[in-house]
Specification:
The complex is a heterodimer. By secondary structure, chain A is an all-alpha fold. Chain A has 23 helices and 2 strands. A two-stranded antiparallel ribbon of chain A has the order 1-2. In chain A, helix 2 packs parallel to helix 4, helix 9 crosses helix 22 and helix 10 packs across helix 21. Chain B is mainly α. In chain B, 79% of the residues lie in helices and 0% in strands. In chain B, helix 2 packs antiparallel against helix 3, helix 4 runs antiparallel to helix 5 and helix 5 runs antiparallel to helix 6. The radius of gyration of chain B is 23 Å and the shape is elongated. Chain B starts with a helix and ends in an 11-residue tail after the last helix. Classes of the chains: A mainly alpha, B mainly alpha. Chains A and B meet through helix 9, strand 2, helix 10, helix 20 and helix 21 of A and helix 2, helix 3, helix 4, helix 5 and helix 6 of B.
């Protein structure tokens, strides 16, 4: 199950001069841009993805994963200094980090968050190394029916957990599935949903589509925010940061259990870093000797949030690499990167691309270590990046967005596709429809269709209920779809019992 | 009334796309229509559920042109980029697009020019380093 040769090749790959150079570039980009408030990690990944794809597959995957990991770490900077989470995963960080900054301990809080992020990423990465081969070996026995059901489960969990409501999540998913089926049919070469446009015969190009959905819509919201510059960055010198870095190790128990909680949440496709950090934060409050200090700037709460969101980032890659199921918007974009590099998402992914998978996981562990080595000076140097006015940011991001759409295949039609999906992304955000669910459905629906037809040809509809794995995934799909209804029913029952 | 119409903007887009997609595959072979038909049926059910859900749900989203201004600006800018790529080619369009973009965001012309030149140089460097097959303008 554990292929040590593949693991050592992955390690050697990561430390080859070229990949190491790309890793450092990815880390710097992720760390610096992750610190810009109002610009989330998924949008950043989407905008930089077209440029990363000009690299060879391992380099592109390492850069993408490193940007993702580094943005999680530096997202704590605006959360602490400005009360604005850099990424959604840093939402719980503001609860303790901002009160600490307001009481003149900004540098200390930044130092604590760096240590917590580093420990979280390393523990999460190590657990991912243990879990991935186990799930990968289990997934090897999957046939077309199981592969269809795994994809269906992934879609059900993302649409149930990431949308405003279950119905809206499902509408976004089914719409995405239909959009994913645009192009020539694989069996008979009949053009479906192409409207006679030759540019759509190969299906919708993924790059302009995801740049529109994530980048364009994000840019519109950034433009509507006006200038971001606010207070902050006081008392954040090297000495203060180092004091926080060292002091965080005093809370080693909290560091470890928060990282483990985050790692478990990360392996489950769906909840993501935000849920993971709030679960760990709540647990830290329960287990703390000073729970009354939570909310006033307590280091334990900050550690729980940051250790957890970084370990989620490390283990969230496991369902992507082993089952092709992303648990968050960023993981969906990493899946898109794999797909665009010719790696077919699905249960066979890990076993067929073990070296690449190990390299990606190891790069996330190295990102954690670098959070301490490079993170301390970078935090002191770039803490003012949180004050960059939107008026300067928007033109630069816009040009990156449009150049990215063009760079993929130099077809001006991609700009029009970007605008179309940009408008769609804005509408989906405004009206509460899940964009990650839509994107995942676009990626998975062609694979689902081919597996569905293949399975049906082998054993008719009954094949979807034959094996134990199939039955388990059918039950899990039903449970994931029923979970929002059960949660709503329980909430109403509690209110009724309380007489509200 | 306007807010009620707003509730149906996205479902209406989905319904129109589903309808047009459905019409394109009518009468085709079993393997072509089977999977999309299942999705179309699901979409129809979900659209009905959304209409029913909206009758009881209060939605405060409303459309205003001032709120839509950033989106309209960005759409205008992307169309501008589209036409400038065709007429000016890749490198030149990046330069002047960045300049116009900075002006739109309220940056003073001299600073906008500095940003535009810097962006264009960086992008030119990236495009050469990554061996982009850069498209030339139509007149070259």
């Amino acid at each position: 199950m554990y292929d040590l040769a593949a693991l050592s090749t992955g390690l050697m790959n990561l430390f080859s001069p070229y990949i190491l150079f790309l890793f450092i570039v990815g880390f710097l980009i992720g760390f610096i841009v992750g610190a810009v408030p109002g610009f989330n990690d998924a949008s950043l990944l989407a905008i930089l993805l077209p440029f990363a794809l000009f690299l060879e597959p391992t380099g592109a995957l390492v850069v993408t994963a490193t940007i993702y990991g580094a943005a999680q770490t530096s997202g704590a900077i605006p959360a602490i200094l400005l009360n604005i989470p850099g990424t959604p995963g840093n939402s719980a960080t503001v609860l303790e980090g901002y009160p600490m900054a307001r009481s003149g301990r900004a540098g200390y809080a930044l130092g604590v968050s760096l240590t917590a992020s580093a420990v979280g990423a390393v523990i999460g990465g190590l657990l991912a190394l243990v879990a991935a081969p186990i799930i990968g070996a289990f997934a090897l026995g999957f046939g077309p029916a199981e592969m269809f059901l795994v994809a269906l489960f992934g879609l059900s969990i993302v649409s149930a957990l990431t949308g405003g409501s279950l119905v809206r999540g499902l509408l976004a998913t089914t719409f995405g599935m239909l959009v994913g089926l645009i192009g020539v049919d694989a069996m008979t070469a009949f053009p479906r949903g192409t409207y006679g446009l030759y540019v759509l015969y190969d299906g919708l190009p993924l790059i302009p589509l995801l740049l529109g959905l994530f980048g364009f819509s994000e840019l519109v919201f950034m433009m509507s925010q006006g200038t971001i510059a606010q207070e902050g960055s006081k008392n954040a010198g090297l000495k203060d940061v180092m004091a926080g870095v060292m002091d965080a190790f005093r809370y080693r128990v909290c560091l470890i259990y928060s990282s483990v909680i985050g790692s478990f949440v990360g392996v489950i496709p769906g909840p993501g870093a935000t849920v993971g950090s709030f679960v760990a934060y709540g647990q830290a409050r329960q287990w703390s000797r000073e729970p009354q200090k939570f909310g006033t700037g307590h280091a334990e709460g900050l550690i729980a949030s940051e250790a957890s969101n970084n370990s989620v980032a490390a283990t969230a890659i496991v369902p992507v690499l082993t089952l092709g199921l992303p648990g968050s918007a960023s993981a969906t974009i990493i899946l898109a990167a794999l797909y665009l590099q010719g790696v077919v998402p699905g249960p066979q992914l890990f076993m067929n691309f073990q070296v690449e998978a190990y390299t990606v996981i190891l790069s996330l562990i190295l990102t954690g270590i670098m959070s301490l080595v490079l993170g301390v000076p970078l935090t002191c140097l770039f803490r003012n990046i949180t004050n960059v006015p939107t008026s300067y940011l928007v033109p630069v991001v816009a040009i990156l967005l449009f150049t990215g759409a063009m760079a993929w295949r130099f077809n001006p039609a991609d700009i029009l596709i970007l605008i179309t999906f940009g408008v769609l992304g804005i509408l989906m955000k405004v009206y509460g429809y899940s964009i990650p669910a839509f994107l995942l459905a676009v990626i998975l629906s062609p694979l689902m269709e081919s597996n569905f037809l293949r399975a049906q040809n082998i054993g008719g509809l009954g094949i979807f209920f034959e094996s134990t794995v199939s039955k388990v995934f059918v039950v899990l799909t039903i449970l994931s779809l029923a979970s929002p209804l059960i949660a709503r029913w329980r909430g109403r029952k509690i209110l009724d019992d309380a007489g509200v | 009334m306007l807010s009620r119409i707003n509730n149906y903007v996205f479902p209406a887009i989905v319904a129109l796309f589903a309808l047009s997609y459905g019409l394109q595959i009518v009468g085709q072979r079993y393997s072509v229509v089977l999977f999309p038909t299942a999705i179309l049926v699901l979409i129809a059910i979900l659209l009905i559920l959304i209409v029913v859900e909206k009758k009881t749900e209060k939605n405060e989203i409303s459309f205003s042109f001032s709120a839509a201004r950033p989106a309209l600006t960005l759409i205008g800018m992307s169309l501008l980029y589209y036409f400038s790529i065709i007429s000016l080619g890749f490198d030149l369009s990046n330069l002047w697009f960045s300049f116009v973009g900075s002006l739109v965001m309220g940056i003073r012309p001299l600073k906008a020019l500095v940003i535009a030149v810097a962006t264009a140089i960086v992008l030119y460097g990236i495009s050469r380093a990554m061996d982009f097959n850069v498209p030339l303008p139509f007149w070259m």
